[in-house]
Amino acid sequence: MTSRRETPARRRAAIAGLGLTELGKVYGPSARQFAAQAVRRAAADAGIGLSDIDGLLVSAGTTPGVDLSLQVDLGLRDLRLFTQMQAFGSTAGAMVQYAAMAVEAGMADTVACVFADAPLQQGKATGAAYGGRRTTPTGWGSLLGSSGFAGPNSFYALAARRHMKTYGTTSEQLGAIAVAQRAWAAKNPLAQLRDPITLADHQASRFIAEPFHLLDCCLVSNGGAAVIVTSAERAASLAQPAVQVLGWGQAHPGNSFRRNDNFGLVSGAAQSGPAAMEMAGVTIEDIDVAEIYDCYTFTALLTLEDYGFCGKGEGGEFVATPGMLGPDGKLAVNTGGGQLSSYYLWGMTPLSEAIIQARGQGGERQVPKHDTVLVSGNGGILDHHSTLVLGAA
């Protein structure tokens, strides 16, 4: 951290480009094609040519094809930094972190970070996109599977139930998050779901894995997203308002699902959040906008607690407080609708909206004060966490 403070301001990293493909129920392009299109759009957004890119970080979703072959698809030559990364939903934040470190160390000048996925198939149910096992579990994992824990829904439901039992969190409190984020999505032309919902709608939606209703669970989307990371000096001369990368942090708790584990009570946000804010020289009181990974309503609640927006165990009461969340609320959280209502591109969902807000380009949903934006990424079953602190130019 000390060495970064010694980095000249002009050399410190900034995000200069954002590229989003068509998102949602978009059929035809492969994940690999979405990825290439996202990088091209990010470069065009920044006002640079593909030949200016000398670093490429690639992350794949559930579908194949987004890999090191993307270099050839894009016609990139003589890259100085190139790798494929995977920490699930925390990868987008980690990619920006590594790109920023590379830029500040002089390893690369202009790094593209890209994620793409195409799990939806026309004529097949949305729920089938993440259904089924890809490998047969052994050992401890086989015991969990024989007990009915066959996928993310059941494991996250277990985590939420433990939080409920320990702290008294309720389904209605989780529903307050879903309702608030749908209100934000109504103002976002990119959002898949824009029709307003009520708490009664949330409670009436079918159960997916108790205590989760359908409206507690994220969308499934096809598409791709990419960002361009370069130096602050160079970003200042490009086409878009530069978004400063002020701080970052990662945490990987290593949950074992055994006795005395704090699974469901504390996430990696409790470590990565303070680390990122300390690097950025800010506190939780300085955060203007929070873009929180929300694969489930519970994930957002737990992360808000662990970042320190409220006390541990107080998340339910906090999010359900009238006037706290939503477009007119005290705290600007998931201003595009998040993964619950906007689109699901893993960690690129909160990151893309954070960039839009920091630039002041949110249109009807733009938050007036957007100097400091906190971004979270969550991967696996609360296994991995990344945090970024971004700043407006």
UniProtKB/TrEMBL annotation:
<protein>
    <submittedName>
        <fullName>Acetyl-CoA acetyltransferase</fullName>
    </submittedName>
</protein>
<dbReference type="Pfam" id="PF22691">
    <property type="entry name" value="Thiolase_C_1"/>
</dbReference>
<dbReference type="InterPro" id="IPR055140">
    <property type="entry name" value="Thiolase_C_2"/>
</dbReference>
<dbReference type="GO" id="GO:0016747">
    <property type="term" value="F:acyltransferase activity, transferring groups other than amino-acyl groups"/>
</dbReference>
<dbReference type="InterPro" id="IPR002155">
    <property type="entry name" value="Thiolase"/>
</dbReference>
<dbReference type="InterPro" id="IPR016039">
    <property type="entry name" value="Thiolase-like"/>
</dbReference>
<feature type="domain" description="Thiolase C-terminal">
    <location>
        <begin position="249"/>
        <end position="391"/>
    </location>
</feature>
